[in-house]
């Protein structure tokens, strides 16, 4: 990741390594014991990538499903991540 990386989804808008780490830690605090899994992708072109992910218990279907789109710099380091939530708990 580049130093000024940004991450934006419906629940968070953060920047920098510390901001991204804090956002990930917040998810793990809200859903203890859950793991991220790759649901589909990645599909890439022109320094862009998209993929669908799941979050849930390691031995069950995901409780949360989302879709991320990211862009990279010329060295392949992540510059931006845009997240979308497709399925969330009621």
UniProtKB/TrEMBL annotation:
Domain of life where this protein originates: Bacteria
Record-given protein name: SnoaL-like domain-containing protein
Organism whose genome encodes this protein: Mycolicibacterium fortuitum (Mycobacterium fortuitum)
Taxonomic lineage: Bacteria, Bacillati, Actinomycetota, Actinomycetes, Mycobacteriales
């Amino acid at each position: 990741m580049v130093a000024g990386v940004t991450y934006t989804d419906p629940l968070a808008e953060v920047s920098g390594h510390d901001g991204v780490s804090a956002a990930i830690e917040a998810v793990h605090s809200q859903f203890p014991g859950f793991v991220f899994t790759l649901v589909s992708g990645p599909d890439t072109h022109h320094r862009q990538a998209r993929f669908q992910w799941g979050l849930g218990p390691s031995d069950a279907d995901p409780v949360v499903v989302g879709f991320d789109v990211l862009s990279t710099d010329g060295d392949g380091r992540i510059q931006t991540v845009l997240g979308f939530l497709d399925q969330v708990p009621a």
